[in-house]
């Protein structure tokens, strides 16, 4: 199939993206700028949303989409999904509201199931679950809410803020990919480094997290985010995430089925332990 025919194909679902077609489209997308990639995605990808925790890459993407929308005389063309883990910095929550106000962008917020506050979550799962069972924590605050968001909103494609310069599992990501669930993922700034993103933010006066001015670069939950040391890689921008752990992802971009299976196994084990404890107390 010629490349020109391939990249102009209207995609209906992840199943349409055969390996050959995906490779052909990626070859074309490599030649485009991030705004051009986003314009292509808006025109060709089905049920497109942007998932973001309002990091710098996500913010640059929101601004680029806003400019495309204005050029087309349309409201903001890609709605946002924000996963509120209940452990975000207040600065992140403030920024989410500021972004919504600045860009008039539709924002859908999803929290852990059956918990709207940190206190409710900890009553159900205990304090510092991320220390006790980090995979269960990741599943409860990120993976399950994301899957619920995709099902609720009928999401077929998502824009992410992942970049190759962030290293770890992201070092070789393509611009366009399909995950194990069939979800299409677009990484429009995959080839940009931190400095390019930061230059765009400043040049376009994009709102950003106040913690950036305190030395943070990659900002997640407050219990697992520190100012990076810059010791790993060119700019070490994700050094401050999960410091001291062999971990580079929160679970959102891992295999969903493996994450769910691990969660179900851990849940079953926990229930068995609780039943055993209850039996011993009764006896």
From TrEMBL:
Sequence ranges assigned to domain Phosphoadenosine phosphosulphate reductase in this UniProt record:
48-226
Q: Which CDD domains match?
A: PAPS_reductase
One Pfam family matching this protein: PAPS_reduct
Record bears the keyword Lipid metabolism: no
**A GO CC term attached to the entry:** cytoplasm
| Residues of the signal peptide | none
Instruction: Give the record's keywords alphabetically.
Output: Oxidoreductase
Record flagged with keyword Oxidoreductase: yes
InterPro entries recorded for this chain? Answer: PAPS/APS_Rdtase, PAPS_reduct_dom, PAPS_reductase_CysH, Rossmann-like_a/b/a_fold
Could you cite one Gene Ontology molecular function of this protein? phosphoadenylyl-sulfate reductase (thioredoxin) activity
Q: Which SUPFAM superfamilies match?
A: Adenine nucleotide alpha hydrolases-like
Pathway listed: Sulfur metabolism; hydrogen sulfide biosynthesis; sulfite from sulfate
Q: Which GO terms describe its biological process?
A: sulfate assimilation, phosphoadenylyl sulfate reduction by phosphoadenylyl-sulfate reductase (thioredoxin)
The family classification in the record reads: Belongs to the PAPS reductase family. CysH subfamily.
Its protein name is Phosphoadenosine phosphosulphate reductase domain-containing protein
What does the record give as the organism's lineage? Eukaryota, Fungi, Fungi incertae sedis, Mucoromycota, Mucoromycotina
